[in-house]
Amino acid sequence: MRAKAKAIKSSSADILDLRLYIAGQTPKSLAAISNLKKICADYLDSRYRIEVIDLSKNPALARDHQILAIPTLVRSLPVPIRKIIGDLSNTEQVVLGLDLQPSESKRSRTWSG
Amino acid sequence: MAKKTNFSSASELKALQKTPTGIRGLDEITDGGLPKGRTTIVCGGPGCGKTMAGIEFLVRGALEFNEPGVLLAFEETPEEMATNVASLGFDLHDLANRKKLFVDYIPVEPSQIAETGAYDLEGLFLRLQDAVDRVGAKRVLLDTVEALFSGFSNSGILRAEFRRLFRWLKDRGLTTIVTAERGDTTLTREGLEEYVSDCVILLDHRINEQVSARRMRIVKYRGTRHGADEYPFLIEEHGISILPVTGLQLQHSVSDERVPSGVPDLDEMLEGKGYFRGSSILLSGTAGSGKTTLAASFADATCRRGERCLFIAFEESSNQVARNMKSVGIDLQQWSEKGLLVHEAWRPTQYGIETHLLRIHKLIDKVKPQSVILDPITNLINSSSQKEVHSMLVRLMDHLKSAQITALFASLTAGGGALEKTSEGISSLADTWILLRDLELNGERNRCLYVLKSRGMAHSNQLREFVLTDTGVHLVPAYLGPGGVLTGSSRLAQEAREKAEARSREQQAGRKKQELDSKRLALKAQIALLQAEFSAVEREAEEVSREYEEREEALECDRRNMAKSRASLQENVIELQAAPGRAD
Fold this sequence. Notes:
Number of strands of chain A: 4
Low-confidence stretches of chain A: 1-12, 105-113
Largest sheet of chain B: 9 strands, mixed
Low-confidence stretches of chain B: 1-12
Strand content of chain A: 15-25%
Radius of gyration of chain A: 15 Å
Mean pLDDT of chain A: 75
Largest interface: A-B, 34 and 25 residues
Strand content of chain B: 15-25%
Structural class of chain B: alpha/beta
Structural class of chain A: alpha+beta
Shape of chain A: globular
Strand order of the largest sheet of chain A: 2-1-3-4
Oligomer: heterodimer
Helix content of chain B: 25-40%
Shape of chain B: rod-shaped
Distance between the termini of chain B: 171 Å
CATH topology of chain A: Glutaredoxin
Number of strands of chain B: 25
Distance between the termini of chain A: 12 Å
Number of domains of chain B: 2
CATH class of the largest domain in chain B: Alpha Beta
Number of helices of chain A: 5
Radius of gyration of chain B: 49 Å
């Protein structure tokens, strides 16, 4: 119903810039990466870019980007910037936090179903 | 730079190593500093100086002990911090440029963060590690790490991460200060003391009768002895100053040197030499008994020797003292102009007792005087309780003694109070106690002075009258009359009486002398007369003997002539016999 209320814009402005900050290949980091990929695939088709930044290789970036918790997901575009911390295991909260709308295929599926 | 604690040698191997903070007084009450390589919690309410203490720890470490530091700021931006501590003379930018300090600002904004699933604070660790590596830090300040609790909702994770953080800091041997807000029932709002149990310092800022006082207490310091009292401290232009009771040890070096009191007559009562250098002198007396004048004389004498004197007045302004002292021939103005006399005056009620003490300490540090005068200490009671004043004075005396500064305290004895008692209860601490009192006799009050005690010298036991003249203070031996000690006009009357007696004695003696003189003259005349008689007799005797001689001579002559004539007669006889018939 929500999707119906909002018109879908498929312009380039809709592309999400996502950065996932991890520190080494820890279980939490790996879980976050796979969770994020799954959510994006489910909700965003190709309307996203994911950059995984390993802070253990460049700790100064943690300061520059004001990262404390690991893993942290940052939606830098569209503004406003949003931050989600944790291994992203709670999909609903991630969707809410990133203010995501279901992808077109999903929507149609939802629509038809 | 760590200092071993003073425990017995057997335990020295295991003794806790310490990192000096460089904060004035803190190293003394912690017996060397904070535990090296461990975490110390500094907690307290808002505005009590936690952050200041932490920053001074870092700055002193960087500047004085060559231990660079890292500051993780959770509440204030580096700019704000730098501005805040610039007033204390700390230049954080300069330290950062010289790679002595690294400041990382970690804003915690709860609204921006959503939480999904498990996480940790590895980012914080990475940042800290990076900062420590950049400057080779030995010291860390986390200010105020509890702010994280407002940014993250999962306190279980946070607590685990705090535990890990303190362990991490300890493993790396970083001497750390963690500042924390004081909780209602716990030392810190979030119970951080659970994780950090080596050293907890509590700061307090309280208002007592409209006077603010900051205090510091070491709640806990595992593995070492430490001062357990509440110590007053100040945040002032050169950082934090804590006032430890240095008088825990009585080990002052003592001087045999004597310093004149400025009143020659008083010096005479003190073996003719005056006070010992570095001793504490207590001048107590009733109102108007001349305490300030005696104190000013001492100030004058100090400056006359070319030494510096610090005169702290709680009752009169410096100008007033200078004017008043001119009337007794003491020119304090000249010493002020030469910079030898530093005259400070402030109201006793202006500050709390600790602030007084700190101000005095600071002045002493600045002026570096050889003599300090406090006039009068009595009024300090107004700003605090007697116990506090006593402890302050003990600390002050102690400080002055260790610095070999001769200290003179004037104390007002309340009317009707026991004379040989000071309201501050410091008489036992003073080395020399001079008592000034008024004697009421024959309708007048006169000042009297006596040396009640003076350690280490054979002082006079006499009561002297204390006379203020336009050439300074004079001490006149008091007269003992039938009605007691005579002072003032009774003394003058007695003096006059004695003078009259002396005069009459003198007159008598004069008369006697005259008498004798005339007698002597008479005798002399007699002698002259006799002498004249004598010489007359002598002359007569001479004449007699001469006459006799002449007569004898004449007789001789006659005899000879006679003989001669007899001889010619005989010849005639013979001739006659030869021609008989012719004679008859």
